[in-house]
Amino acid sequence: MEIGLNTLLVALMFVTVLSMGIGNILTTLADVFNPNTSSRRDPIHVAWISLLLIIHFNLFWHTKAILEVDEWTFGGFLLAIAGPVLIFLSTSILLTCPSAKEPQDMHDFFVAVGRRFFGVFALVQGWIILAGFTMTGGFVLTDLVNVAFLLLAVLLAGSSARQVHLVGVVVAWSLGAASVVIRGLYQVG
């Protein structure tokens, strides 16, 4: 299979933007888990940051689909790169640090950041469904996981209750695990 220059350029842009997000998440997690730093975050916030790393790796696997496209148009390029740009934006929002100067309840901080994060994260899920449908001409089983993520994001964006966010992050991790398992089964079969 010969891979054209345009395909390589699209794939390069795709993985570059995803790699920037992965690097930012790893830097933040190193700070969170370093006892010698003053990093302060709610455990639910840290759980979402960690899950976002796995979602990046899952999305990174879509590079394989990019390499299977024979010819690219500018519109196709924009559609392909919109997902990594949206997930980078949602990651940047979620990685926002609370002010060290002002005492703040960490859950309240997470809820404030979360409203913006979950809105963009819902767009990421919509993009995954749209891009997958556009590239394959149909829906796949993992699209159900993305629909569930989208609905969860909308629910969490509108809630400030700690219990709702706690249940939400557990559901999100379950969805993330289901997506990884489903993707693994598709690779075996």
Give the helices and strands, then pairings.
Layout: H1 5-32, H2 43-60, H3 63-67, H4 74-94, H5 106-136, H6 142-157, H7 162-188
Helix pairs in contact: 1-2, 1-4, 2-4, 2-7, 4-5, 5-6, 6-7
The computed structural class is: mainly alpha
Q: Describe the main β-sheet briefly.
A: none
Overall shape: globular
End-to-end Cα distance: 22 Å
Percent of residues in beta strands? under 5%
List SSEs in N-to-C order. Answer: HHHHHHH
Q: Give the integer mean of the pLDDT values.
A: 90
- The percent range for helix content is over 70%
How many strands in all? Answer: 0
Number of helices in the DSSP assignment: 7
Number of domains: 1
Mind telling me the C-alpha Rg? Answer: 17 Å
- Low-confidence segments, ≥5 residues, pLDDT <50? none
In short:
This protein is mostly helical and 189 residues long. The chain has 7 helices and no strands. The two termini are 22 Å apart.
Q: What labels would you give this structure?
A:
single chain, 189 residues, globular, mainly alpha
Note down, in words, how this protein is organized:
It contains seven helices and no strands. It is mainly alpha-helical and 189 residues long. The protein has one domain (5-188). Helix 6 packs antiparallel against helix 7 (162-188).
